[in-house]
Specification:
alpha+beta, Ubiquitin-like (UB roll), 3 domains, 4-stranded antiparallel beta sheet, 3-stranded antiparallel beta sheet, 15 helices, 7 strands, 13% strand, globular
Length: 336
């Protein structure tokens, strides 16, 4: 079927006809190496021959560029633009800060493909604020005072934000990959449930951070600071680039537990999850003697969380989604 209004002149039919957009594989040799690219072609709905339509050549150039960069592990133009946003630095100053020529980044933004060496430098700068600080200091004399101070301050700010453990970042990245939208309150509760389920099933915590009993339930303060000034959906923030790919370092067991929690607890909003935690022994024990004035410094020890979830596992079998759903149903019954 053709989409309404999708018509152009077919040189074979010698008239205006409807056409279909399809993918076709082509082989191109770049730097003595053959690559197969899937490009978009327009096919006449009447004779089946390919047609030349406005804008298609530009689209094909973009498709080949993106697929070539992906095949060679090279940064994209979007990656470079994110790097500029993350560190609040312009294209020419960024070139100098990274040790390139002044026009290198501007040329990359216009479509020139970077070398593997320069691409790796850009990739490392995106993922490591500490590395970006190092490059800024190395090339301090090439930058204006204003550009240096602004970029260095941004790098320091991000470095302090991302002070949580690598494992915590990997878990957060995987949660974001699985859920389209995660509020700060929801994220906190999911991390708590993941810690509980994983420690019950494998006898050890999944990440090292300690949880605290805040008024609105279990909270990881470092994560609170990390996402306090992110947008409602952190994945829309340029700084999210620092998390991309982190989830790949998780083990199969860790991914299994996160999937269990995301597919069960993850279908509820943050306030509902908060109510569940308020009826669990770890938070209720921390609240004893405080009432509604529970101090934010009160710990929820990992051992206490593990002990509680071991008992829950014995009763419900929380190594399955069915067991977790039954547990959630019973806990919600207490607050309905």
């Amino acid at each position: 079927m053709t989409e309404k209004g999708r018509r152009d002149f077919c040189i074979e039919c010698r008239k205006e006809t409807a056409y279909l957009l399809q993918k076709r594989d082509i082989v191109k040799n770049i730097r003595d190496k053959d690559y197969t690219f899937a490009i978009t072609v327009a096919v006449c709905a009447e004779c089946g021959e390919e047609m030349s339509i406005p804008g298609l050549i530009d689209k094909n150039v973009q498709e080949i560029d993106e697929q070539y960069r992906s095949a060679e592990g090279l940064v994209s133009i979007d990656d470079i633009e994110r790097l500029m946003k993350i560190y609040k630095i312009g294209k020419a100053p960024l070139s100098l800060a990274l040790g390139f020529g002044e026009v290198t980044i501007p040329r990359y933004l216009e479509g020139q493909v970077p070398s593997k060496e320069y691409s790796d430098i850009i990739k490392t700068a995106i993922s490591s604020p500490a590395y970006m600080k190092q490059k800024l200091m190395e090339n301090r004399e090439k930058l204006t005072d204003a550009a240096y101070r602004k970029a260095f301050s941004a790098a320091e700010s991000i470095e302090s934000l991302f002070s949580v453990s690598d494992k915590m970042l990997r878990v957060i990245a995987y949660i974001f990959e699985k859920l389209e939208e995660v509020t700060p309150l929801m994220l906190q509760k999911l991390l708590y449930f993941i810690q509980g389920v994983y420690s019950a099933l494998y006898g050890k915590p999944i990440f090292e951070e300690d949880c605290r009993a805040w008024l609105h339930g279990p909270v990881y303060p470092e994560v609170y600071e990390l996402f306090r000034d992110f947008k409602y959906n952190p994945i829309d923030d340029a700084r999210f680039a620092l998390l991309e790919g982190a989830e790949d370092a998780l083990t199969d067991d860790e991914k299994r537990v996160i999937n269990l929690v995301v597919n069960t607890f993850g279908i509820y909003g943050g306030k509902v999850l908060e109510k569940i935690t308020h009826n669990e022994d770890p938070w209720m024990e921390a609240r004893k003697g405080y009432g509604d004035s529970i101090p934010s410094s009160e710990f929820l020890p990992k051992e206490r969380i593990m002990k509680y979830y071991i008992l829950i596992n014995q009763k419900y079998g929380i190594d399955t989604e069915a067991g977790l759903r039954t547990y959630i149903h019973d806990m919600l019954g207490k607050v309905s």
